[in-house]
What we know:
Blueprint: H1 5-10, H2 19-29, E1 35-36, H3 48-59, H4 72-86, E2 95-98, H5 100-112, E3 118-123, H6 129-134, E4 139-144, H7 155-161, E5 166-172, H8 184-196, E6 200-204, E7 230-235, E8 248-251, H9 254-268, H10 273-285, H11 288-307, E9 315-317, E10 324-328, H12 336-347, E11 349-350, E12 352-353, E13 364-368, H13 373-389
Parallel strand pairs: 1-11, 3-4, 3-5, 5-6, 6-7
Antiparallel strand pairs: 2-8, 7-8, 9-10, 10-13, 12-13
Helix pairs in contact: 3-10, 4-10, 5-9, 11-13, 12-13
This protein binds pyridoxal-5'-phosphate.
Pyridoxal-5'-phosphate (PLP) binds next to helix 5.
Amino acid sequence: MKYASISSRLSGLGSDKWAVHIAGRRLAAKGENVILLSIGEPDLPPAPSILDVASNQMRAGRTKYSAGEGEPAMLEALSRHYTQRMERPVGTDQFLFLPGTQTALFVAFLSILDPGDEVLLLDPYYATYEAVVTAPGGKPVPVPLDPDRGFHPDIKAIEKAVTPRTRAILLNSPSNPTGAVFTREENLAIGAIAKRHDLWIVSDEVYAMFIHGNHVFHSPFMEKDLEERTIVVSSISKSHALPGFRCGWIAASAEYCKRAVSVTETMLFGSQPFLEDATAHALEHELSGVAVMRDAYLARARVMKEGVARARGVKAHIPEGGMFVMLDVRGTGLSGDDFARRLLNEEKVVTMPGESFGLKGAGHLRVALTVDVDVMAEAARRITAFANRL
Length: 390
Ligand SMILES: Cc1ncc(COP(=O)(O)O)c(C=O)c1O
């Protein structure tokens, strides 16, 4: 049979990125004493009240078709949440409820790219970004971030990468994998480039609720003059530990939402009203659990940093936000990939090689902060033992 080129464009994109993770899972399934730090799946439980709302609303008959943009109560909740977080009014007509950030990314690029259009990705970047750009025929263009500057953006390099085919810049702050939180000044400088070249800014803010230390969250969507060109994608997968609910959204201009709803209705024909009710409840009532998770991630990052302090050639950086810590292993002389493979074989600790996230992740490991402090301390002990044997 003849298949559309999308299937070959996407096949193989990314599969080798997960090789260490898959090997680690196999060992764990055999009962080996494996510490799995390779995937960003929240380990703390979701708030029981969110589950209660979902199940009560399901039983109350909220199982029919929903409105295409999202249910009115959900859109109201998003409008209140964003009006408060963006520090300016954001209307109910500025959202599309979607099954998670991943679908929101897919919709965003499907609705703004024509084949051959280029998208600037700040490298290292989240593992699915190449695919969401490539799916509608776009071309990912990596722009390097400097590990020695905390993976913050080099504004001149971004501007230099713009060509007549550039259509969008994809941002992710707090970043997976780097943990960098972009400042307002950085976003304004990127926004100025976007305005000069008439580009979209797609801003993946799935970790927005996890900001550490004195860092301050900023979104280009907070700036009124960037509103028309910014598409925010986010969800409750991380903030409320509910990735299996697949509850996320796009926040953008009313004009964008009016256009893109035809794409989402064609794909989805709505969502599950009882899950929208649970998501609205989460955004309006369950923010204390978010703080508990955020504090746990930071405490675990500190344990990892202290734990590898004596590991030769290894440096841990406390993340500015998010739920990952990057280990810089360049000082060991091994690539991130070799370090991760050997660490798995010799010490049964599973991490993601930085190379899985682009060229600039080379010589790093991404460690998910999804195990409790004592397990994290044991992981750090094993990493130290391995590094000091090299
Ligand atoms: C940066 C980033 N974007 C998007 C996603 C997907 O999130 P969701 O579960 O909301 O689709 C993830 C999940 O790990 C992520 O790390």
